């Protein structure tokens, strides 16, 4: 699995997930339950992961939708 994007904004995760679902690309959100450790402040970024073979296509879909991938 490869990291596609990293963000604190849950709406970006939802939007990106919808885009990938419509393209038939499976994705998984990591660090969803980190709010237990941070006290529900939303300071810990969540990661959206895709399979290695889908990374190139997923990045292209995010670029087309102008989604900031949040990684350097």
From TrEMBL:
InterPro entries recorded: DUF2007 (IPR018551), N-reg_PII-like_a/b (IPR011322)
Domain of life: Bacteria
Species of provenance: Yoonia tamlensis
Name assigned to this protein: Putative signal transducing protein
Residue intervals of the DUF2007 domain: 1-66
Gene3D superfamilies (UniProt xref): UreE, C-terminal domain (3.30.70.790)
């Amino acid at each position: 699995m490869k990291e596609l994007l990293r963000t604190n904004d849950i709406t970006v995760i939802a939007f990106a997930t919808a885009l990938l679902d419509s393209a038939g690309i499976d994705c998984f959100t990591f660090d969803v339950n980190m709010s237990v450790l941070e006290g529900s402040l939303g300071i810990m970024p969540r990661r959206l992961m895709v399979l290695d073979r889908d990374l190139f296509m997923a990045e292209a879909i995010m670029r087309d939708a102008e989604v900031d991938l949040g990684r350097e």
